[in-house]
Write a structure and sequence with these properties.
137 residues; 4-stranded antiparallel sheet
């Protein structure tokens, strides 16, 4: 896959066109939908030192390897990986009527419920830990 093509698609998905939707007119009002857009990505490469199961994070550096440890199949072997993720959440809409502009927030009940349940769970865990800590001799 072409890296430039991949980056162009990622930039298109995180552009202002995703944050501000296509404006439309309804009942004499201009409505402009707005969203929160976030994303990130990463990638990397690694060169395989030896085709040996012991070659890992704790193994000696490549420079310390002796000549008899390196085989022609091992030299120049690289591995690569990467990933990208994005999130688009509706936040509301601007409503334009005549000369007046009004902000109408979008309330997502599902997200509000999940956030409140997560908060209750965190508080319950903290209270349980506090009880265990106080009951120790």
């Amino acid at each position: 896959m072409d890296v430039e093509n991949l980056l162009a698609k990622a930039a298109d998905n995180l552009s202002v066109r995703r944050a501000f939707g296509t404006a439309y007119e309804k009942d004499g009002m201009l409505i402009i939908p707005v969203a929160i857009v976030a994303g990130g990505g990463g990638g990397g490469t690694a060169r395989n030192r030896r085709d040996h199961p012991a070659a890992g994070p704790g193994s000696p550096p490549e420079e310390a390897a002796t000549e008899h440890d390196i085989t022609p199949q091992d030299s120049g072997r690289t591995e690569a990986g990467g990933g990208f993720g994005g999130l688009v959440l509706p936040s509301g809409a601007y409503v334009v009527k005549g000369d007046q502009v009004r902000w109408v927030p979008a309330v997502d009940v599902t997200i509000a419920m999940l956030a409140s349940l997560s908060l209750v769970r965190m508080l319950a865990r903290a209270r349980a830990r506090q009880r265990r800590y106080r009951s120790r001799p």
